[in-house]
Design brief:
Elements lengths: L1 H31 L6 H4 L2 H4 L1 H8 L6 E5 L7 H8 L4 E5 L3 H6 L10 E3 L4 E3 L8 E3 L8 E7 L7 H14 E12 L17 H10 L2 E7 L24 E8 L1
Helix pairs in contact: 1-5
Length: 249
């Protein structure tokens, strides 16, 4: 009888968790079909697999989520509608384009901006950007996410980025990182400029105080031999990417 009760409890718990994400899934599907997204953005859905990606990271619609370096807002357009009613979305560091082009649109007025005093600097002759964090005032976030940004920064910039994520999160909060895969310990060259070694990323993020939780292979692409720059026609839109999840201790 005792074993039966435990089994029923575990089944009920797993069902509840699945049901929790079914709500998020519905909101994501609605956001994915919204008119605010262009056809070029929608065309990337199959490759970027946002529903399974956000499910892996454990997104819930009542979370406080920080999107680091949102770029043009591809993920912002999906996260904001999910979090609009019960949660909170903060776009932080390098959010100028999103602020100017998206946040004045209906349904995005609740999105907050942080880290506006942060600066990117690429020294003359350097391949990557250094990063100085400024005005980053987020506290006790449930989740920090960054997509295809880690490779853009120098070791100093990546360290600043990881430290900013750590400070923004509450204890137990999740840090999710997705980026283009480089061969382990391959020397820098013109073809891996927008790739990053996942082993190096894990090492650096652990050094920032995080613990490693899990990885997913949903963005593994066996046809990408990691030989070419991600913008080349042979791999564009089909690059191998690592998907890593960490937790603040």
């Amino acid at each position: 009888m005792k074993h039966l009760i435990v089994a029923l409890f575990l089944f009920a718990s797993s069902f509840a968790m699945a049901d929790d994400f079914s709500v998020v899934r519905e909101k994501l599907q609605k956001a994915m079909s919204a008119d605010i997204r262009g056809e070029d953005e929608k065309a990337r859905d199959r490759n970027r697999n946002p529903i399974e990606t956000l499910k892996f990271f454990g997104l819930k619609d009542n979370m406080k989520v920080v999107e680091l370096i949102p770029g043009g807002g591809w993920y912002t357009k999906l996260l904001a509608p999910v979090l609009a009613d019960k949660g909170e979305l903060v776009v932080a560091i390098g959010a100028t384009r999103v602020k100017e082009n998206l946040l004045d649109k209906p349904g995005f007025d609740k999105v907050k901006v942080s880290g506006e005093k942060s600066t990117f600097n690429r020294p003359e002759g350097a391949r990557f950007y250094d990063l100085t964090i400024g005005g980053m005032d987020v506290k006790r976030a449930d989740m920090v996410l960054t997509f295809r940004n880690y490779h853009n920064f120098s070791a100093q910039g990546r360290k600043a980025m990881n430290e900013a994520a750590y400070k923004a999160l509450k204890k137990g909060g999740i840090y999710g990182v997705v980026d283009h895969t480089a061969r382990h310990m391959e020397p820098e060259n013109a073809e891996n400029r927008r790739r990053i070694d996942p082993v190096l990323a894990i090492k650096e993020i652990l050094e920032a105080g995080f613990e490693f939780v899990d990885y997913a292979d949903m963005h593994y692409r066996p046809d990408d031999e990691l030989r070419y720059e991600v913008g080349r026609a042979t791999v564009k839109g089909n690059t191998d990417r690592f998907t890593l999840m960490f937790r603040k201790k």
